[in-house]
Amino acid sequence: MSGLRWRWSAALAGALLIGAAAQAQPIGRPDVPVLLGEFKGTLPCADCAGVETSLTLVQKDDGTAEGTYVLIETFTGKSEDPVVTEGAWTTLRGSAADPDDTVYELNPDGLEVQRRDFLKVNDYVIRLLGPDRAEIDTGASVTLQSPPDPFAGMPNPAALNCVKIGGRSVINTGTTAGDQGVCRLADGRQCEEYGVLRDHRCFDPAKPRPARRPPPKEDTAPNY
Length: 224
Prior knowledge:
- This protein is 17% helix and 36% strand.
- It is built from 3 helices and 11 strands.
- Strands 1-2-3-4-5-6-7-8 form an 8-stranded antiparallel beta sheet, with no helix packed on it.
- The model is unreliable at 10-26 (pLDDT under 50).
């Protein structure tokens, strides 16, 4: 009888811990675009002073290794009008130098623009690769960098994030919580802006979201 009681108590304690952990997790749909990075730098140019480059990579959602991109290039000393290219990117495994490298492959929407490959150096640095994913040895820098927090010091980071992932930032007025920032995604969904930025999830702005609860602390008191 004592063994049965112990098993029942252990099962009840496990259920309580699982329930508490579930309450600590954010709710909402996780399939929202995520800003992977906004990489910038100057790449070499054969007939100009350099190519001022900005590459924005947006993940399809937090659990995928693909998404969309916007590439903006300005050819210094040749033209003041930037060239904007959009398309889809995916993740490849292996470069010419290392089979374990992670490579971002850019596939443009238009056929007139060539495909590009960028080696992931770390979360904040990528490097342009040549044909067959080989390193480019030009003596000039071919790296682009993204700041760890691209919205640091910005007055409304949630609204900026919404725009960069392809949404439209709007303000809902007259709600019970006052003015509320809403991100209208490209697929028509309306999500609470800060939930998209902070949790990478779509929370219905019309429904109150329960406050986060910290996970229960483990009892570390010694048993005597």
